Amino acid sequence: MTHNFLNETDLEARTLRKLQWRILPFIFLLYVIAYIDRINVSFAALTMNKDLGISAQQYGFAVGIFFVGYFLFEIPSNLMLHRIGARIWIARILITWGIVAALTGFVHNVHELYIARFALGLAEAGYYPGVVLYLTYWFRQREQARAIALVLIGVPVTTILGGPISGFILDHVHWLSMASWRWLLLLEGIPAILCGILAYAMLPTRPQEATFLTPDERDWICAELAREHEQKTSQHNISLAETFTHKRIWHLAAIQLTALTGLYSLSFWMPQVVKALSSHYTNTLIGWLLVIPQLAGLACMVSVSRHSDKTLERRFHAALPVFAGGIGWLGLSVSATPWMTMLMLSLIAAGIYSFFGPFWSLPSEFLHGYAAASGIAMINSIGNLGGFAGPYVIGFIKTRTGSMQWGLAFVGASMMLSAVLLVLLPKRASTP
């Protein structure tokens, strides 16, 4: 019996190691590409806003309207992914948004920018919840927080890599007498198209199709996932229709909404917050300074998700970081020195990034099949409206008052509310 146990343990370790090395790095790469195209307008804005005569309020609306398009097509997109397979649908999403992202570099006024950002949201809709759903096809509940976090480190890595590159493009790329911010959007849209082609060629849909696993490894992971599926079905047999009225799904959506107000405010306004520290900062230097809070966020994100998987505790592993991020926003709203600003940005990044791994392990505790596809998409689509609310409110208040202070405080309060909602979340899902 001991011999069989050792064999099974060896098989488990070998299979999980293969899954982690074969699935996660490529999904991570795709997420980096996605996030670059979503937020590179924040770097473009350092010169684009002046060129096109865009006010702070208009900029906030332009970055936020992306999430309206995203919201409208999110659930249908995730259902399509579940139906026709991740390989085809993720490839379609990548190629479509790459084309739209590149074409955004040719807008001539704020109204065309609105249209381009809305279209980008439509094109990218379903990508992130599709990734979360896809990971549930390969990893058990106990590995999901770490798997999700290893993909979502693409958020800080995007700025760590993309910040200096974007700043360099803005300062040095003026080919063919075309503005550097146009080249920034055009050049950073092309990788998505190329990765879409790679996704179609490389991405296996399910473990049953995984040629990189041996037959005994395929049998083991399929049996483990089937066992978890049966357990979820016996405890939470939720239909596709019931996901739209399930209290826990709406509760999780409210948590995501208030948390993402903080994430996207950070993503879209951080370059301008840092630029306001000194008129002598070049765009290249701003890109490098933004690496500091991202490194803090990256380190905390990995450690918190690892501890969450080890203890199998999710609520407080998500609540405490998002509360700390809220404190960071409140501190940023009254910051008067560059070092204090960088410290608060680091606290915000550490808090919001550490939230994701534990949080996105919660839906898969009670959702499966088409219910998982629609439920995860619903949580994310409603939550992403925070990506409209936070950046727009900051821009609106800045246009009206000339200061970001009350807008930053609003975002801080929103993240603290997210922490409260997490603490109030029942430990177990009830029937709808």
Task: Describe it.
With 432 residues, the chain is an all-alpha fold. It has a single domain, classed as MFS general substrate transporter like domains (Growth Hormone, Chain: A, Up-down Bundle), CATH 1.20.1250.20. Helix 1 packs antiparallel against helix 8 and helix 2 packs parallel to helix 4. The two termini are 43 Å apart. The radius of gyration is 21 Å and the shape is globular. It is built from 17 helices and no strands.
User: In which range does the helix fraction lie?
Assistant: over 70%
The CATH homologous superfamily: MFS general substrate transporter like domains
CATH architect. name = Up-down Bundle
Report the count of strand segments.
0
CATH topology: Growth Hormone, Chain: A
How many helices in DSSP terms?
A: 17
Distance between the termini: 43 Å
Indicate the CATH class.
Mainly Alpha
Please tell me the overall pLDDT: 90
Radius of gyration: 21 Å
Order of helices and strands: HHHHHHHHHHHHHHHHH
Shape verdict: globular
What composes the largest sheet? none
Strand content: under 5%
Quickly count the domains.
1
Q: How would you classify the helix and strand content by structural class?
A: mainly alpha
Low-confidence stretches: none
Structure described in brief:
The chain has 432 residues and is mainly alpha-helical. The chain has helices at residues 2-52, 56-84, 86-103, 110-124, 127-136, 141-152, 154-172, 180-202, 215-235, 247-275, 283-289, 291-311, 315-333, 338-359, 369-383, 386-401, 405-424.
